[in-house]
């Protein structure tokens, strides 16, 4: 069984690669290394360096996978993932996330491959006005990034009708932690790496707003461990391989959420470096709470929160400090 994993040299993608290999599958990685890292790809894993926007590269990658015993499907994680930056770079965002997905899908159909697991995002929802987001919650993306992910989902549904594509989209919320000591989040925009970098440098982490209508006044979000996310991809791929039914979309959510101040407390406790975070004014557009139900994914993908908050912090801190050793 061979799968192509786009974006497989990135933080989430590299975890998916290893989880797929541990399940006994062969993988081929396609990554342009714009945010991924060559060292995140294990020795022995085929890595094609290039962009999903390039049809020649896409055909080369799919051909390489087919030559390893047949192409079973594609797990598509590659893309431009910075929601805030996408507001300043909408054309680039749509080129990478919409055009790139279209080029990839065209290559798949040419190769006779009709199984895809798509990395989508909670950004499709925008700022929902419900306490618990479900797959039935209306989508209302508020950034080019969120729009591009929703367009990707729509394209998959259109190809289901026109070409018999079998697919599912996994909507992530806030992915944190590490499943392996040599893999870690390198995003300059995500909360965990920013907080860990501040603590590691002896600086004070920042909390934006403690006057929200939440139990401790700070924003509440869904934080899920990256290894749990990776295992959901394996389960989705397995169902596609065997022809089992799948929903078009699954939320990979915790059902309860964690506040920013709870994260700060956990970081101080787990790292053994106590601090009092600096509190600043709210940032425009930050909703008080976004938490999702993972019930559908639990039913079909064996989705469960196998790691608690301390596990998330401890694994992230261990990988972060190892990367600087």
Task: Tell me about this structure.
- Its EC number is 5.1.3.2.
- Belongs to the NAD(P)-dependent epimerase/dehydratase family.
- It is an enzyme of class 5 (isomerase).
- Pathway: Carbohydrate metabolism; galactose metabolism.
- By secondary structure, the chain is of the alpha/beta class.
- It has two domains: 2-175 and 224-251, Rossmann fold (3-Layer(aba) Sandwich); 177-222 and 256-291 and 307-323, UDP-galactose 4-epimerase, domain 1 (Alpha-Beta Complex), CATH 3.90.25.10.
- The chain has helices at 11-22, 55-66, 83-86, 90-110, 144-163, 191-200, 226-242, 260-271, 295-301, 309-323, and strands at residues 2-6, 26-31, 46-49, 71-76, 115-121, 166-172, 174-176, 206-208, 220-221, 223-225, 249-251, 258-259, 278-280, 289-290.
- Strand 1, helix 1 and strand 2 form a beta-alpha-beta unit.
- Helix 2 (55-66) crosses helix 4 (90-110).
- The relative contact order is 0.14.
